[in-house]
Amino acid sequence: MAAELPDTTYAVLGLIDKVPGASGYELVAVAGRSFAHFWPISQTLLYRELDRLANLGWVAATRVEQLHAPSKWTYHTTAAGQQALAGWLAAPTPATSSFRSGVLLRFFFSYRMHPDQVGSLLADYRSTLQAQQEELLMMMDKLAAVSTPTARAGRLTALHGLRTTQARLRWVEEVEAQLGEDDS
Amino acid sequence: MAAELPDTTYAVLGLIDKVPGASGYELVAVAGRSFAHFWPISQTLLYRELDRLANLGWVAATRVEQLHAPSKWTYHTTAAGQQALAGWLAAPTPATSSFRSGVLLRFFFSYRMHPDQVGSLLADYRSTLQAQQEELLMMMDKLAAVSTPTARAGRLTALHGLRTTQARLRWVEEVEAQLGEDDS
DNA sequence: GTTCCCATGTAACCCGTTACATGATTTT
DNA sequence: AAAATCATGTAACGGGTTACATGGGAAC
Hints:
7 helices; homodimer; mainly alpha; 184 residues
């Protein structure tokens, strides 16, 4: 019986299924632009998964020579790969979700900080959230122009991030208001 | 120059500073009840950090014999440990935050699923979110009764989780409504 | 008398990261 | 001449996980 594979393997498999004929280099870029917000993958890891998928026979690699750029490997899913992807999608989701926030961890110990340190912690958090928000808005804008099922799925995951980010921005304001009361 | 320590080390250090005289076993329980929502720590890892902190001289361990239970080690921060904690809190936060969601990853590939598979994916997601919400509400309720700075900090981090969870619940409804339109 | 709570630990694994290497081609 | 893009890879590390071991006292 085969050992269970990490979700990351299926993430890369799904990407190749979505963008057939792409090189590893291109897949890294696509991953960074698409699901990086809820499933980040580093370049090294993606290449490792490419190896694994090829060994499993789930993707096939083709060498492509280029004139104005170095040669590259391109990938596409095999029938077995598409079946594996479908099986993974059909299986019950084990609710694998992880969240770690350095900001919240520090805020949890904020009673050991000077009040203005707490202020700048929140201010920094707000600006990262705002940057995130703009990025997500741009992504959704770009996807709104396309009316394919894949674009819609991407747009809705971006919306998930946007709603999350907006709620957290409101939280920052809520907390700042509450802390402001005590300082006066 | 000392290698940089992971945030987890400071998380445990902060916990001991917050709950002095606790045993490793108790700290595991406290960590699970307090910052597990944004900084989960497994039992094994926490014990490893306890070792590290003792070796650093940031916490001191005391053996305590018990009559009706096995002997235990209890921990409290040293002056050096408190200084290290303060230094960590004062340093600029490198925005270490990571988020990985198995649900979103699958939803991103939902165009390869049957419509009712998407439906149950969302339904499952909703119930985990609702369970999370109730847990956070209970936590906030319990902390609202206490009016110490540490309780307030804990309550506000719980509020962060609550706002996040609520936004995601609204996202589920938003998405379900949008998918419902197409099925009819 | 089995199961739960207290209490600490070992072993093994591997996912994911950072840093670095290489080399050609194209743009500035 | 330098920097950016394309393209793939190696090496080393470590943080975090799961599974398991142990053992006594308490509770049901």
